[in-house]
Amino acid sequence: MLCHVLQRRYTHFDAVVSSDLQRTLQTAQILAAPYRLQVQQHPGLRERHIGLLQGLTNKEAPSVQPEAWAALQSGDHASRIPGGGESLDELKQRLTQTLLEIAVQHQGERVLVISHGGALHATHRAARGYEAHGKAEEGVGMRAAGFGGSAREA
What we know:
Elements: H1 2-9, E1 15-18, H2 22-32, E2 39-41, H3 61-64, H4 66-73, H5 88-105, E3 111-114, H6 117-128, E4 143-145, E5 151-153
Parallel strand pairs: 1-2, 1-3
Antiparallel strand pairs: 4-5
Helix pairs in contact: 5-6
């Protein structure tokens, strides 16, 4: 479905850049195929690192790692998650830097960037200039943006 929407809206891309994590990379390969483009992998597009919570379900995490779970749920943008996890501020900084690198590398080109839900939400909030409130919805979405342009959702 998303592939068809993308093809109807955009007749070409010059490049496709994706997170190097498996599920997102697989999605990127499917979306890149009709454009006959190879997917470039970038680790800077990965989802937020959640430290000691990595690999735990939302049901397990509160009892197995209560301190890390509390940090994740706090809403404090500077709060790092124990075990090497990123704060929301660090996530925003990493993604902003990554997108600027991609923009410089592909100046004047139309680039399809594939990432993860939380990473895309953080990027959208940073571009719009507002902080996160509440929880991000799970699932797939499409967001189009241009440097110096506007953004829209599908």
